[in-house]
Automatic annotation (TrEMBL):
<dbReference type="InterPro" id="IPR036514">
    <property type="entry name" value="SGNH_hydro_sf"/>
</dbReference>
<keyword id="KW-0732">Signal</keyword>
<keyword id="KW-0443">Lipid metabolism</keyword>
<comment type="similarity">
    <text>Belongs to the 'GDSL' lipolytic enzyme family.</text>
</comment>
<dbReference type="Pfam" id="PF00657">
    <property type="entry name" value="Lipase_GDSL"/>
</dbReference>
<dbReference type="GO" id="GO:0006629">
    <property type="term" value="P:lipid metabolic process"/>
</dbReference>
<protein>
    <recommendedName>
        <fullName>GDSL esterase/lipase</fullName>
    </recommendedName>
</protein>
<keyword id="KW-0378">Hydrolase</keyword>
<dbReference type="GO" id="GO:0016787">
    <property type="term" value="F:hydrolase activity"/>
</dbReference>
<dbReference type="InterPro" id="IPR001087">
    <property type="entry name" value="GDSL"/>
</dbReference>
<feature type="signal peptide">
    <location>
        <begin position="1"/>
        <end position="19"/>
    </location>
</feature>
Amino acid sequence: MRTLVILCLLCLHTLSIYANGEGSEPRLLFVFGDSYADTGNTPPNTTASWKVPYGMFWPGSPSGRWSDGFVSTDILASTLGIPSPTQYARLALNVTISGGVNFAVGGSGVTYAFGTPPFQTQAGWFANLVAAGLFTQEDLSRALFYVSVVGNDYSAYNGSLDGYFPLSHKVPLLIDQTLRTLYSLGARNFIVSSLTPLDCVPSRTAPSGFTECEKNTTTDAVILGHNHFLGNRLENITRKLENSSVLYLQQTKAMRYVLNHLSEFNLTEGLKPCCVGQCGAVNVTTGIPLYTVCENPEDHFFWDGVHPTGAGWKAVVGLYNRPRFTWFARTLSAWIGNLRL
Ligand SMILES: *[C@@H]1O[C@H](CO)[C@@H](O)[C@H](O)[C@H]1NC(C)=O
Ligand SMILES: *[C@@H]1O[C@H](CO)[C@@H](O)[C@H](O)[C@H]1NC(C)=O
Ligand SMILES: *[C@@H]1O[C@H](CO)[C@@H](O)[C@H](O)[C@H]1NC(C)=O
Ligand SMILES: *[C@@H]1O[C@H](CO)[C@@H](O)[C@H](O)[C@H]1NC(C)=O
Ligand SMILES: *[C@@H]1O[C@H](CO)[C@@H](O)[C@H](O)[C@H]1NC(C)=O
Ligand SMILES: *[C@@H]1O[C@H](CO)[C@@H](O)[C@H](O)[C@H]1NC(C)=O
Ligand SMILES: *[C@@H]1O[C@H](CO)[C@@H](O)[C@H](O)[C@H]1NC(C)=O
Ligand SMILES: *[C@@H]1O[C@H](CO)[C@@H](O)[C@H](O)[C@H]1NC(C)=O
């Protein structure tokens, strides 16, 4: 990754920024976090997201996204009327920055999580681009910063049960600290997501044959704790940091809502994922897939053991424009409308 940054800094003078905004439209979207937001930052062929059948619905072949098609970033950008941000990993390729930059990497969190670059490191990459003069302070004050740190710190945790609940204080604290780092660099407008419903992802519901969410009081306490403590910290940011504004996406609630109202979103399968088994893996000897894949992923909410389909994301992000699925503003569009951009 260090090589990548150096390569990229060498080519900065050739990069240009795609300015889509007119008047009060936000111009850039910067994205941080995990696989729910990553649009292809893991190196090609190193993760399942670069293997068949990922990307089968769109673009028709693997694109490094953990989905059959779009992920949250794509749908959010499209909702905001800006192109899906350029992947940070592609900046070394002398591409034009359109829509902003996506720094998210599948597997990341704010602790070790699964060992991929955490939010703090991603913020460091952003700091390098700011230091290189790629964005003006005005660009940054009008930009949106989307942060998806939604569960890897918990799902990768392998310590004692005693240390598990305290994570629900530590993880929001580390998210808060990194948001403040971004603020000090010029970021003002933050869209931060609450956890995925860890108890309902297919990897947890497989034992019940994907018929019911896991019933585990520890998991429930961690989800409620994290979302509550993070909410407190975000509220403090909006109150105390001059000109800052935060939209807190109630992702846990939105996903539970979709799972409980499938037909409203033209979905037929909730807990059962489209891709069952070791999605993306094949038997190295025989080449036979170690998974089965459904015919129409757009009927399913979940794509694989952890990730929604593009249709699932469309439903979830759509709810942020309905009252009661966001905090600190009535809806996503109301929040955007109130920003002084
Ligand atoms: C990556 O995977 C694709 C498709 O499986 C293959 O064609 C390509 O050669 C691989 N690239 C590398 C660098 O292994
Ligand atoms: C980078 O892209 C610009 C514009 O597309 C082009 O003029 C320039 O030659 C490219 N530089 C390199 C090193 O490829
Ligand atoms: C447990 O987590 C630590 C990081 O907290 C990691 O270094 C280690 O590899 C993990 N062990 C296993 C067996 O996954
Ligand atoms: C509940 O979840 C915790 C944390 O993942 C785990 O250690 C514990 O064994 C689970 N309890 C039950 C009853 O499954
Ligand atoms: C709120 O933020 C201020 C300034 O950023 C800080 O000094 C204070 O400790 C925070 N309060 C809480 C309860 O986190
Ligand atoms: C807050 O916004 C006002 C008006 O645009 C500006 O003058 C001031 O410098 C900003 N302060 C910070 C800390 O961003
Ligand atoms: C669901 O499908 C119907 C019929 O195809 C369509 O009219 C409706 O707009 C769809 N609703 C959503 C939320 O996609
Ligand atoms: C792969 O296929 C071989 C030959 O059929 C079999 O012996 C082996 O158990 C398979 N491995 C896995 C991981 O399924």
